[in-house]
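User: Here's a chain of 81 residues. Predict its fold as C-alpha cells.
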Amino acid sequence: FVPLLNGRDLDRWVGSKERWTIEKSVLVGRSDGKSAYALSVQGREFGDADLRFEVRVKSGMAMIGMHGTENAHVGVGIAVT
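Assistant: Prediction complete.
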C-alpha cells in the first residue's frame, strides 16, 4: 500500500488547507460547523486501489469520496462539517 499522506505536510493536496493540519502524522480537519471544508489529492495517478482509513469525529460528520471519469484521473476527497 502507498499512503496518500506523507505524515509531515499537505504537499500535493488542494482545498481548504487553512482548516486542515497534520498532527502527529494524522490528518486533522476542523470546521466552524456552518460549511464543509474539502481537501483533495492531486498530481498522482491511481490504478487498482483499496482505500483504508480511520475516522474519529467529535461532532458533525466526515466524508471520504473517490471520484473520476473513464478518461480522467480518480481523485480522493475528504470533507468535514
